[in-house]
Amino acid sequence: MVRKNDTLHGIARKYGTSAADLKAYNNISNPDLLLVGSKLKICSKQARNVTYVVRKGDSLAAVASRFGVKTSTLARINRISRPDLIRVGRKLTVPAAGGTAPSRLPAVQRQALAKIRPTPKKWTKIVIHHSATPVDDAVNMHRVHEDRGMENGLAYHFVISNGSRKASDGEIYISKRWKDQLDGGHVKKLAWNQTCIGICLIGNFELRPPTTKQLDALLGLCEYLMEQCNISAEKVTTHKILHPGHTVCPGKNFSLSAFSEKISSR
Fold first, then answer.
1. Are 249 and 201 in contact (CB under 8 A)?
2. Radius of gyration over alpha carbons of the chain, in Å?
3. What is the average pLDDT score of the chain?
4. Which superfamily does 125-264 belong to?
5. Beta pairing class for 91-94 and 50-53
6. Rounded CA gap, 216 and 197, in Å?
7. Burial of 237 by CB count in 10 Å (0-12 exposed, 13-18 middle, 19+ buried)?
8. pLDDT value at 106 more than 70
9. Given pLDDT bands bounded at 50, 70 and 90, which one contains residue 44?
10. Cβ neighbours of residue 253 under 8 Å, at least 6 residues apart?
11. What is the mean pLDDT of residues 38-53?
């Protein structure tokens, strides 16, 4: 329970964890605003492992996401050589959340993503875009792309809102392209669209940077996709870097180097 004069860093030191993990584990948006009397879940490294019994419809990735651990970690601890084959009724040892960094994504978004199984070995890169419009939403973008004659409408696999219309700031929209594991339409070359996951953040980042909640959502989403699709941090890029001279997307106010450091620090 948070007491007067407590800080997130102080609580983290006391329980042998980090302020970053504590922030993510409790979905804290502003670590400088801790309410006295509120209860925090502690992702201590001394916490015990738990046992989970595999149920019908489970996948190793879904179980890992549910508990905020890496699929590779779960496979290694349980000596699973074929992560795509887990038997109903099998008991899995799940490491305590403190043993690995918890997911930055809210539970509802993790659950929605866990229902979708990425096509094995299809996706090799993540490409970040901006909409170049200060106000927009995924539904409107889908309609515009359909009007342009784009097959399957919305060109991106994911859209992250800035709260300007309908969706809340940082809310992730999962498009039909990801749900059905379809090629993207967000870059010029067909071969790139067949292998690159497209994520678009609403906003014009030539004029102003993405919101804090957008960046947090992007970080959580990229980490999730990297784990599920075996994509390294070096393969997370931007439209401009992938296609120099063709576009400024996602704008001068989005720093890929700063973003990549956050991924690499996990």
1. no
2. 19
3. 85
4. Peptidoglycan recognition protein-like (3.40.80.10)
5. antiparallel
6. 18
7. middle
8. yes
9. very low
10. 205, 206, 207, 208, 209, 210
11. 66
What is the model's pLDDT at position 99? 46
As beta bridge partners, residue 94 has 50
Contacts of 134 (CB under 8 A, 6+ apart): 162, 164, 203, 204, 207
3-state secondary structure of 173: strand
Instruction: Say what percent of the chain tops pLDDT 70.
Output: 88
Q: How confident is the model over 51-70, as a mean pLDDT?
A: 83
Name the token pair of 52: 């989970």
Distance from C-alpha of 220 to C-alpha of 28, rounded to nearest angstrom? 14
Amino acid letter, 61: A
CATH of domain 50-102: 3.10.350.10
* Mean pLDDT of all residues in 96-121: 76
What are the structure tokens assigned to 30, written together? Answer: 């502003």
Q: Are 130 and 250 in contact (CB under 8 A)?
A: yes
